[in-house]
Specification:
Helix 6 (about 85-95) packs parallel to helix 7. Strand 3 (about 125-130) and strand 4 form a beta hairpin. The chain has two domains: about 1-60, no CATH class; about 70-150, Glutaredoxin. It is built from seven helices and four strands. A four-stranded mixed beta sheet has the order 2-1-3-4, covered by helices on one side. The chain is of the alpha+beta class. The protein has helices spanning about 1-15, 20-30, 35-45, 50-60, 80, 85-95, 140-150; strands at about 70-75, 110-115, 125-130, 130-135.
């Protein structure tokens, strides 16, 4: 991991990048930003680790834990909530066997995200599967999509 981080830091110094670009590069290469990477960057850049953690936890694009290869995002905004998004979330977690409080399967094949709003209220409830938007989602449609993804290897 340190070799990959050193390469990113060379670009940081050479291009005078900002820390957000550096964190994006780390996440792109490692899939998430592990604590060891934060501590490494903190020492190399002379930036307190707490400041890096603050940036990472402020922006929803950054992740401190490994994520699944398939990302399923369920909107919990008002329109989606009223139209059954909580039912979809509960069924998804059961189907993927994700324990309460968790969001990623043990085999790292799936991550279930709950977000406050995706801005597509007219299509509620909305589920985004691997960056593809699915409006007017039902539990039957969601389970069908999951089975398709489970079948792919």
């Amino acid at each position: 991991m340190e070799k990959k981080l050193e390469k990113i830091l060379k670009n940081y110094v050479k291009d005078e990048c900002n820390i957000i670009s550096t964190l994006q590069d780390v996440q792109e290469i490692l899939g998430y930003i592990p604590e060891e990477a934060i501590n490494f960057l903190s020492k190399k850049l002379d930036i307190p680790a707490s400041r890096l953690f603050g940036i990472i936890t402020f922006y929803s694009q950054f992740h401190l834990k490994p994520r699944g290869e398939n990302i399923i995002t369920i909107c919990r905004g008002t329109a989606c909530h009223v139209n059954g998004s909580e039912r979809l979330i509960n069924r998804l977690l059961i189907e993927l066997e994700i324990p309460p409080g968790g969001d990623t399967t043990d085999d790292l094949r799936f991550t279930a995200e709950k977000v406050n709003c995706v801005g597509t209220c007219s299509m509620a409830p909305v589920v985004i599967i691997n960056k593809r938007v699915h409006g007017e989602m039902t539990t039957d449609k969601l389970i069908k999509e999951i089975k398709i993804l489970k079948g792919k290897r």
